[in-house]
């Protein structure tokens, strides 16, 4: 596995509107954009933090995985996204090494990136996202 960088850190929040001022006004991170990712039932906001980004995730329905996460563990760090190339090849490679993936195929995530999550049971409790960005 060749990790190019930490692409972003995903943070679960109840409300983007309430969470954003800390990032934009106190940390003074530029807001790169906001979008709704229907497949994940979340609204996300991306902020630039040096070479990496912060992804704030607000659930759009009570059944969404982020809503369930907040209910169980409260707001806070949800996942770490590793920037990689050739996501399908990387997934195949680590599956052959015994790592469980949450899904078998990459999905289209925020910003059109191809993403797939490793199962925390295979990673010592951390939810890692593989994230391939074009260009
Ligand atoms: Zn993410």
Could you please describe the fold and organization of this structure?
By secondary structure, the chain is α+β, with helices and mostly antiparallel strands. The chain has a single domain (5-132), classed as Roll (2,3-Dihydroxybiphenyl 1,2-Dioxygenase, domain 1). The chain is built from three helices and eight strands, in the order E-H-E-E-E-H-E-H-E-E-E. It has helices at residues 16-26, 65-73, 87-96; strands at residues 5-12, 31-37, 42-49, 52-59, 76-83, 107-108, 114-117, 128-132. Strands 2-3-4-1-5-8-7-6 form an eight-stranded mixed beta sheet. Strand 3 and strand 4 form a beta hairpin. The protein starts with a strand and ends with a strand. Zinc ion is lined by residues 8, 10, 55, 79, 81, 129.
Shape: globular
Stretches with pLDDT under 50, minimum 5 residues:
none
Gyration radius over CA: 15 Å
Compute the number of strand runs. Answer: 8
**Class of secondary structure makeup:** alpha+beta
CATH topology: the name is 2,3-Dihydroxybiphenyl 1,2-Dioxygenase, domain 1
**DSSP summary: helix tally:** 3
Distance between the termini: 20 Å
Helix content: 10-25%
Name the ligand types: zinc ion
User: Main sheet, how many strands, which sense, barrel?
Assistant: 8 strands, mixed
- Spatially, the strands of the biggest sheet line up as 2-3-4-1-5-8-7-6
Q: Name the CATH superfamily assignment.
A: 2,3-Dihydroxybiphenyl 1,2-Dioxygenase, domain 1
- What is the mean predicted local confidence, pLDDT? 95
- Along the chain, the helix and strand elements come as EHEEEHEHEEE
């Amino acid at each position: 596995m060749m990790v190019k960088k930490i692409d972003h850190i995903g943070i679960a929040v109840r409300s983007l509107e309430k969470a954003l001022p800390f990032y934009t006004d106190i940390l003074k991170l530029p807001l790169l954009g906001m979008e709704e990712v229907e497949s994940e039932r979340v609204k996300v906001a991306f902020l630039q933090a040096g070479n990496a980004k912060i992804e704030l995730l607000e659930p759009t329905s009570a059944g969404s995985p982020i809503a369930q996460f907040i209910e169980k563990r409260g707001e806070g760090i949800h996942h770490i996204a590793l920037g990689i190339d050739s996501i399908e090849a990387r997934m195949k490679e680590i599956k052959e090494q015994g790592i469980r993936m949450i899904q078998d195929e990459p999905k289209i995530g925020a910003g059109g990136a191809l993403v797939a999550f490793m199962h925390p049971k295979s990673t010592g409790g951390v939810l890692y996202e593989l994230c391939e960005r074009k260009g």
